[in-house]
Amino acid sequence: MTDKLASTDTVDNAPDCQTNRLEQFANRGWMTAAQHNTFAGTDRLFGSEDVQDTFVWRQQNMDGGTDYVRNFDPSECDRVQLHGVSQDQVSLSFNGMHTILRIGQGDETQQIIQIENVNLVGERSEAAALLHLIEQNTLTFSY
Ligand SMILES: [Ca+2]
């Protein structure tokens, strides 16, 4: 038996990664966390099973292109951390296979992040899903 999300499941049953995260890790024996930094150019990043992965984008490295994340598991509190951008510059969508985070304003796209084979929108509207991701710390902002 597993309590992991299948790749096509939604984020709706993911834990609250803000308030209970450390306890969850202790209870589930997760001792490992990993940070994955992105750079200018196309990045292809991979999360690891039983690791709390943090994927980091800094504004100065956003190149207007698309970066790709695989093995993203919100039930492990994997997260996307954005530096130098604000919440109102981010939009969220699901294209039927992948979750797409777009960072930009108006017609100008600073970065597309494709989170592969996971649906982080679920049954919510895209705007409500974005807020939900922020509330449960799956998407975080730093300055
Ligand atoms: Ca992971």
TrEMBL record:
Name used for this protein in its record: Uncharacterized protein
Protein source organism: Paludibacterium purpuratum
